[in-house]
Amino acid sequence: MKQDSTRNTAYTVDCEDYVHVVKFNPFDSGDACSLIAYGGDNYVVVGTCRFQEEDAEVEGMQYKTLRMFHHGIRVDAIAWSPETRLDALPPQIRFCTAASDKKLRLFTSDLQDKNEFKTFDGHSDYINDLVFAPKEGQEVASVSDDHTCRVWDLEGNEKAHFVLRSPGMSVCWHPEEAFKLMVAEKNGTIRFYDLITQQAILSLECEQTPLMSADWCLKNTLKIGAVAGSDWLIWDITCSSYPQDKRPVHLDRARLFRWSRVNENLFATTGYPGKTTSQLLVHHLGHPQVPAIQQKRTVAFLNQFVVHTVQFLNRFSTVCEEKLSALSLRIQQIETTLNILDAKLSSIPGLEDVRFEVSSANMNSVTNGPMAQTTVDQQTAVSPQSGQNNIHEEGLQKTEVVTENVRTVAKDPRYARYLKMVQVNLHAQVLIVILAVKLHKENTVRQLAQLSLCQGVPVMAIRNKMISEGLNPDLLETPDAPVPAWGDDGKAEDSSDSESSFSD
Question: Region entry Disordered: which residue ranges (predicted)?
Answer without folding.
Answer: 473-504
